[in-house]
Amino acid sequence: MRTAKLTITPQLDATPRADAPASGPKAVDRLSQAILTSLEDAKAENVIAIDLVGKTTIADRMIIASGRSSTHVGAIADRVVRACRDAGFPAPKIEGAPLNDWVLLDARDAIVHIFRPDVRQFYNLEKIWSADRPGEARIG
């Protein structure tokens, strides 16, 4: 399986500023950076961020990560929720938490998927949402 590691550009300081806007591109980047930092702190594996602008209206960013076990997936999800609140954003809505095979966090402008490795491989969201989807023109 070939998976490209995508990053958010530019990398911004995750520390929220008092004068930062409550919505818009800068808020999305602040939210994404807070999520990415929390994933790194929780030792999430194979983290990628996919820009969804122009692809869908559900969110501006999709972040996909793996945990080593169901317990690890649950712990990662808890850390992401805490990071969103600490950065001044509403707590994400959570789906899939009781089993922790695949936890989806809806943070409004960012959707976070945290998988066990075998579940991630089965659903292969990276391929579904990649820029190289058949029948779509490349932007930029």
Descriptive overview:
The structure is a single chain. This protein is of the alpha+beta class and about 140 residues long. It has one domain (about 25-125): Beta Polymerase, domain 2. The chain has 4 helices and 5 strands; from the N terminus they run H-E-E-H-E-E-E-H-H. It has helices spanning about 25-40, 70-85, 115-125, 125-130, and strands at about 45-50, 60-65, 95, 100-105, 110-115. It has a 5-stranded mixed β-sheet with strand order 1-2-5-4-3. Strand 3 and strand 4 (about 100-105) form a beta hairpin. Residues about 1-20 and about 135-140 have low confidence and may be disordered.
Mean pLDDT: 79
The total strand number stands at: 5
Determine the CATH superfamily: Beta Polymerase, domain 2
Order of strands, main sheet, comes to 1-2-5-4-3
Reported CATH architecture? 2-Layer Sandwich
Share of helix among residues? 25-40%
The secondary structure category is alpha+beta
Shape category: globular
Oligomer: single chain
User: What is the name of the CATH class?
Assistant: Alpha Beta
Q: Sheet bearing the most strands, described?
A: 5 strands, mixed
Order of helices and strands: HEEHEEEHH
Rg calculated over all Cα atoms: 15 Å
What is the compact description of this entry?
The protein is of the alpha+beta class and 140 residues long.
Give descriptors for this structure:
140 residues, disordered N terminus, globular
